[in-house]
Every structure is written in C-alpha cells, then in structure tokens.
C-alpha cells in the first residue's frame, strides 16, 4: 500500500521535461555513433554459401552429396516428413495450411531433372541419361551404390573427381556432368526451375546443400548446435536465451515430440501462450491471480513490514549523536 508520507518516492521532486527533445537527441547520438563505428570497423558480412563455391572448392564433397540423393541415402532423401517418405505427398493438413506443400524426390528433383537440362548442351550427359533410364531399377541402384562406395577412395584431379575402375554404368559421366553444371554456376537455376519468368520458390536449392556442406560452413562460424551461438550456451545442453525455455518445454510434450507436424504444433502453441500472457492483464479473474497469490508481498516483505505494519518493525538505530535531555 502506497504511503505518501513514508514511501521513498516523496523524496524526489518533479521537474518539467521535453520528452520529444530527449528522444530526438538520443536518436541523433545513436545514429551518429552507428554510422561512425560502421565506417571505422565495417560490417562483418560473411559471403553467402553458393552451390558453385562448394562444387569448385570441394568437388569430392559435391559429388558425395549428389550421389546420396541418387541412391536415396542422403540427408534430404532420408529426412522424412514434411519432405518425403517414399510415398508421394507426405504433408499433413496442418503443414499444408502453413505453406509446406511441396514434397521432395531428391533423385528426380536434385539430380535427374537438372541433368536433363544439362543434356541439351552436353551430348555425353544425354547419352548417360538414356542408358540410365533404359536400365532396370535394380541395375540403376547397383550402379549408384558402387559409385557411392568408390567415392570413399576417390581423389580430386584439378576440378574433376577420379574414382577407381569399377562397374558404375552411366553414373560416372552423370556425376561428372552434374559437377560441371555446379561449377558453372547454373546448378541453382536448374534446381529452382520454374515455368514462369519469375521464380519465388527456392526450396530445392536451399535443401541441396543440407548435410556436410552446411555443417562445415556452420562449424567455421561456430554455429553448430553444440557450439557457442544463439541456441546453446557454451558446453551446456540447455538453451541459452530465456525465451527458448517455453519452446523447448513444448517439444517435451509426447504427442508434439513425435508428430510429423511437430514444428507447426510447437509454433502454434507457443503463439497461444504468448497471446494469453499478453492479454491476461485485461481478462477478468486472470488479472487478479497475481494479487490473490500474494507472491509480490513475499518479495517486498521488508517494505510491507516497515510501512504497512510499522508497529512490527524494529525501532531505528541511534547513531549516538544525541545525548539525554
């Protein structure tokens, strides 16, 4: 309870202030400091990671990613919902509602269709694709598996990948053609192909480098999940920012933890909790909960003991300056 005679606020006097003047002055100071410091130290902008960069600097890694898509053993090929599960359209109604509407077939979308575009300009790729499509499914898988195993013993020669001799069928010229497509800078366009003149769906090019290429780039920036960053504190298994506590708690709910739409459920429930906390101050009975619980009185117990029940508070200590009357 506020007591104007004893509360500490009565010790301060009110003065007139021009808040617009303070706001404008603060904004000007911050703007000048920001521009001045950015001019001196520059913005630490990291160069974007391009498919062309990976294909040029690490050709072997590029082919390992590509062969994983072709064999069905890569990161995206085995990701599961909402992208794929070898059964076609795997999006749940909730995922479709929030915009996840494109299933991914890595062998077709990431390898064969880009190669079909490259085959128009490269006869070797066209011949290899014809041999691939003419072979039985089992033979295709055997060729791809053989080449995937051979990459473990491959070496980089210039800008190409050399593998030991083996039964690879048309897979070796297919991978060579895809590598040249990546090094040319045209792979992104081949992945994000669109019948329209303007392309707004970048899903395939964003997913193609999932796995080792992105992990290597993130490791250099210390952005892996087990490194220092926004998600984890250093050497700690729990989230660093306090606001991540609610999110991680939601993921512990068994149904959400094992649902294919777990991310969508977590985001929706988190938004519901956020809105509930935001409007709770205006909802009858709910806005009375803090007062009825009385936690604030426990926190400020010294204040209430001193000013609400002054008889219970100990008398002030004398400094010994005054003598007897």
| Portion in strands | under 5%
Give the averaged pLDDT, no decimals. 82
User: What's the total number of strands?
Assistant: 2
**What is the element string, with H for helices and E for strands?**
HHHHHHHEEHHHHHHHHHH
Give me the secondary-structure category.
Answer: mainly alpha
What spatial order of strands do you see in the largest sheet? 1-2
Shape: elongated
* Main pleated-sheet profile: 2 strands, antiparallel
* Stretches with pLDDT under 50, minimum 5 residues: 321-325
Helix content: 40-55%
Count of domain modules: 2
> What separation lies between the terminal Cα atoms?
36 Å
Describe the structure.
By secondary structure, the protein is mainly alpha-helical. Helices cover 52% and strands 2% of the residues. The protein folds into 2 domains: 51-218, no CATH class; 222-281, no CATH class. The protein is built from 17 helices and 2 strands. The chain has a two-stranded antiparallel ribbon with strand order 1-2. A hairpin with a 2-residue loop joins strand 1 and strand 2. Helix 3 (59-71) crosses helix 5 (106-119), helix 3 packs antiparallel against helix 7 and helix 3 (59-71) crosses helix 8. The model is unreliable at 321-325 (pLDDT under 50).
